[in-house]
Amino acid sequence: MLPIITLGLPVLASIIVLFIKDIRQIKQFSLIASVLMFISTLIYLPTYLYPTSPNVVSIIGMDSIFFSMDGLSYLLLLLTSFAAPLIITASFLENHERPNIYYSLFFLTIFALTGVFTTQNALMFYIYWELALIPVYFICGFWGAEGREKITIKFFIYTLFGSLLMLVALIYLYTKTPYPHSFHFSTLYQVALTSVEQSWIFWAFFIAFAVKIPIFPFHTWQPDTYKVAPMSGTMLLAGIMLKMGVYGMIRLMLPITHLAVVQWGTLATILAVTGIIYASIIAIRQTDIKRLFAFSSMAHVGLLAAAVLTMNKNALQGATFQMLSHGVNVIGLFFIAGIFSNRIGEKKISEMGGIASIAPRFAIYFMIIMLASVALPLTNGFIGEFLMLLGIFQTQPIFAVLAGTGIIFGAVYMLWLYQRSMFGKLNPTITVFADLNLSEQLMLTVITIVIFWMGLFPSSLLHIAEPVLNQILKTY
Amino acid sequence: MEVIIIIALTGVAIMMAGAFNKPGLSLWLAIAGLMLGFIFNIRLWNTNLHLYNHMIVYDNYAVAFNALILLSSALVFLLFHSHYSPWEKHLDEIAALLVFATTSMLLMTSFGNLVVLFIGIETMSICLYVLAGSRKYELPSNEAAMKYFLLGSFMTGVMLFGIALIYGASGSFDFHDITAYLAANGNKANNMFSIGLLMLTVGLLFKIAAVPFHFWAPDVYEGSPTVITAYMGSTVKIAGVAALYRVYAYHFAAIQPVWATTIMIVSFLSFFTAVLFGLPQKRFKRLLAYSGISHAGFLLMAVLALNQYSAGALLLYAVSYSMATIMAFTVLVEVIEVKWDDQLTVFKGMGAKNKFLAFALIVAMLSMAGIPPFSGFMAKFNIFTAAAESGYIVLVVLAVIASAISLVYYLKPITLILSNDDSNAEKIKLTPEVIIVLTITILLTFVFGVFPKLLTGLL
Description:
Helix content of chain A: over 70%
Strand order of the largest sheet of chain B: 1-2
Number of strands of chain B: 2
Oligomer: heterodimer
Radius of gyration of chain A: 21 Å
Largest interface: A-B, 25 and 25 residues
């Protein structure tokens, strides 16, 4: 029963919200619906915290929809349903034309993401994966900023091209499964492949996931899309959707093409690490706050990809944890960027300054989220990045050194940004900067609490995904 | 052979009805006839009739494709009055010709003899030549008819020559005897037979507008009356592919090496060049023409695959393709009635003023592009899987790349529809017939997108 609620709630909300006329009611309804989703997800928590024998919730006998959720799936579902109310609260900062359609598309995305994370059937995985793309395409294409047409088309074709490669790989695997063919993950894991076949499939998977994450050199859609998309669209993309790529890597790429990961992993890791350094250096030079956050996000996910490719348990645990904390932090960061543009319009960083003096509460929250993003100990960012670097160091120390520079660079551009925007003399062009209102403060408080809670008590979350990761690492 | 007789008689009745000069009568006669034919057709499921010395083989394959042909013909008929005004001259003749074309298509899926195949194709073609020119005071319509007729009749000649060569080699028109002849020769085709087969193939490929025999399609699509274009785009193409599949899968499967390379090259050329040529198109009809050519390429992959999945995959693809095509053309018919133009820009701002039409067009485009959860995705998926199963992995990869590129032009109308600038958009009043057509096509697109097994399990 519970799985049906988990999958059904977003669909239901997406339909109902279409028929609400009043803007206030639409917002209230969306928020309540998303909070309900989060609560319905929390109900599973005891199952995974105190696992009895098979750590999987599933609908038995429903072959086509195939809801099946283990610890890893659950963590990402938790992230999705936790992020949804946050993103909806954040979206109140913006005014959308035709808000009912906007929120309907939003819930449709949440539905598709829920599906991606809770299926054990590769075909359904692909369908949900594609399905998540369509509403986001519309959200960016019709509520985005100037110049969105070309950029969203680029984004759409880029990601679709990648995922079609994945489809080819899946079809090939499907034809290799014993008769009657099946798309179930466990069947696909057992397909015996030569190392040449594995290499092809590895690259098909890798490009599909690399576009989504994005990993250098498949990232060119990302900064522009993050910039022109409405804030909530950016949050969806950076906060949850890019986790689909990392999740796909852990779920499909590692177990199915483990030989090829050993063979080609170094090359792929070089790409990921290049991305970290490249994005960090570009981030330092950015004059626009959203683009800076976009490149910073790219640097962080480069580390995620490098960690997953090591196939080391510490690194994988770190990656899993970092998926969650990156999701929370990046939503916080883009919310900060949203507040900036809400208060003072689109301004360059050099045109800001001294805002801390007139908006002290805002300054505090910004500081906390910024520090979490540069992985200060006690915050959630530290746990994930530490574990990932540890794991990479255990397998390929050189890459750990190179990837570690990302953290140093991160401190450079983040602290510099903070200094230029918040401290110093108040820029004369900024006369008013209203401090946080109640709902903004509430949202940032929630994010802050989660940042510290995850930073101080990481073990419970790490514990949830552990059996799944063990199993995935055991398959080869 | 009730089905074919019923449909043929419907055509005769429509021509008679012209004498009474009652506008609208012919339309309902046609739909009633087609529906009656549909019911009788379904009743033949699992009967597997072999009639008139194997002239006609009415097996499940024929039943399934004929059901689709009858259904999509009926849907096109429902659009009839949106396009032709009831007091237009010769309306009954036009309706009758459409019904006769449908009759001949029924033969194209159920032949057991080369002569029946030829009769089916030729009758259909002659009807279509006239239909393409049915707006005889409009220059583009005349141009379309002329081009179609000249190229089409030439290709018919080629095909007939091919049939003659096959007859010369095997001594029979009957596929039973031809297959027996091939088996007796150790499934090796001599040169005469191979050349005959190639010429027959060329004729059939021309009818489905596969590259390099596609040059007529964009011009003819553009010039013909829109309803006729819808008919050509959906039903005619399906019938052509069904005939091709029947020839190869049911009769010439044994000599696959002889024709597989040809079909593979044509399939690749069709979906790839059509997708590239589709990119710069500014007119919706031409865009759909190129999209149709690329879909012919995808459909040919099922012919190539030739395993236990391919027939079901072909049926699913045919259904989802023809539903999406009819959907798109229905919207176009309605828009053209108001705007008198088929530039893509006519869709600008349609989302605000004509929600239902806009929704239908978005569904049609996404389904053609092969995006889940629409049936187009499942159709492509099944065809690709069937082809991969038979080892055509490279072709599948290329097809996948082509479908990614095709998205560029399928997204164009969608972007325009949802544009916030709706200053040029006008409210279009929909007739009940149009609403019925769109509802049925959208429903089927969703249903087969979610439950593709309903169709793929049939064959």
